[in-house]
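[retry 2/3] DUF1330 domain-containing protein: previous attempt timed out, resubmitting with same input.
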Amino acid sequence: MTALWIAHVNVTDPEAYGKYAKLAGPAIAAHGGVFLARGARYVQLEGNDRARNVVARFPSLEDAVACYRSAEYQAALEHAKNAAERDLVIVEETPA
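[retry 2/3] DUF1330 domain-containing protein: success.
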């Protein structure tokens, strides 16, 4: 079953976060991830507003978790840790 990686981000250091994004994209793609939304227009209806929202689809929940735990993604994440406030959740898609 496919899974969605959903990140809500408030970027505090655009230069460092840009380094994260440059490395994270290939790491996500290497694990079968495909971006569905990446910084596009949005409407905040509830909860805490974060200016950047990213959604990626992975072949499975396990693939998404493996991506997050991979050396490549963790190397990218080092650039984001002090450059953004982030919430990240991975959820399985509901079958149609």
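[retry 2/3] DUF1330 domain-containing protein: The chain has a mean pLDDT of 96.
[retry 2/3] clearing retry counter.
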